[in-house]
Specification:
Elements: E1 4-11, H1 17-27, E2 31-37, H2 44-50, E3 55-59, H3 65-79, E4 84-88, H4 97-109, E5 114-119, H5 127-144, E6 156-159, H6 163-168, H7 175-187, E7 191-196, H8 211-247, H9 250-273, H10 280-308, H11 313-336
Helix pairs in contact: 5-8, 7-8, 8-9, 8-11, 9-10, 10-11
Length: about 350
């Protein structure tokens, strides 16, 4: 079935090379949507020239890449009829048109999937890009249980079947792209990868990614979960230390402390971390099942460390909690506190 091919370019303070990219895409028959995300007056002539080959939408002030992508998607949903395929690209020259065509073809072949053009990070790659991707890949694997080799790629493609889902995903800046991956992992949307060429113009000087500010936005969900877990651990560990001399048993002290701290953890995660708006009793039942499973694993591992390995009870408790942290996060994020699209 023939699909209309649409390219969506979010642009903030673009370089003149954006016009060359638009010309090449236009030559391939794409419908092109450019979103000027509050660029300065110095870029006015670039967008004016771009409007000869593309639809140019404007944000009066900079709102962020995620907001620009949703503005473009809202326009596409309103002005294009299905079936169509959407390709998002960066306007800074990091993506080639041949690679874009390959990624788009993958999405057209599997219309229910999200197709990613993933950089290989070989050769002359800026250190911040190489390090940032490696850290984010690990964080995402812990959070979502899915291994994506390039979580920060802006070269993505999907069909009209996913447009509504993409519009409902929160995040106005760079965190939006991570939220897209988290949502796809949570909802079982297939994520497919294709290797693409890695291009960094001027050592990636044209990137508007702020390492500290934008990294915090990307990681804030797992950071909030970590803070919640730390509070719950403090409650758990404090009660464990209190009950241990009273009960004289690591197992009894551990079970009692876990039940008390689980109530604290559930409340924090539901309202502050995941922002779940679902029925509390349904989430509570799912959480109780998880807590029971974690408790069994927790008690078994604690017993193994103390009785078989001979490790001090207090240290064993800390090691046990660390070991089960990632499992707890992934299950709560994917199954218990799912956000409705």
């Amino acid at each position: 079935m023939y699909m209309t091919r649409i390219v969506l370019l979010p642009a903030y303070e673009p370089e003149p090379g954006m016009l060359d990219l638009i010309a090449e895409l236009s030559g391939q028959g794409f419908q092109i949507i450019v979103v000027n995300d509050g660029s300065s007056d110095a870029c006015r002539s670039l967008f004016l020239e771009a409007s000869q080959s593309a639809v140019v939408l404007h944000h009066p002030a900079n709102r962020g890449k995620g907001a620009a992508l949703r503005t473009g998607l809202a326009y596409i949903r309103e002005h294009f009829s299905a079936p169509y395929a959407v390709l998002t690209m960066d306007a800074d020259g990091q993506h080639t048109v041949p690679d874009a065509l390959r990624v788009l073809a993958l999405a057209e072949a599997e219309p229910d999937c999200l197709a990613l053009g993933c950089r290989r990070f070989t050769g002359q790659v800026p250190l911040r890009s190489r390090f940032g991707n490696r850290v984010t890949r690990i964080v995402f694997r812990l959070a979502a249980g899915l291994d994506v080799s390039d979580t920060q790629t802006g070269l993505r493609a999907f069909t009209d079947r996913l447009t509504d889902r993409m519009l409902a995903i929160p995040g106005d800046r760079y965190e939006y792209e991570m939220n897209v991956l988290m949502t796809c992992a949570r909802d079982g949307v297939p994520v497919r990868e294709l290797p693409i060429e890695t291009i960094y113009e001027n050592n990636n000087a044209g990137s508007h990614f702020h390492p500290l500010r934008d990294s915090f936005r990307i990681y804030k969900e797992i950071l909030k979960f970590s803070a919640s877990s730390l509070v719950s651990f403090a409650v758990d560990y404090g009660l464990f230390c209190l009950f241990l001399p009273l009960f004289g048993s690591e197992i009894a002290a551990n079970i009692t402390a876990r039940v008390c701290s689980a109530a604290v953890n559930f409340t924090l995660n539901k309202h502050l971390v995941f922002g779940s708006r679902g029925h509390t009793w349904q989430a509570a039942l799912r959480y109780a099942a998880l807590a029971a499973g974690i408790l069994v694993c927790n008690t078994a591992l604690l017993t193994f460390l103390t009785e078989v390995c001979g490790i001090d009870s207090h240290l064993s408790k800390i090691l046990t909690e660390l070991a089960l942290f990632a499992v707890s996060f992934a299950v709560q994020r994917m199954c218990i506190f799912k956000r409705k699209a």
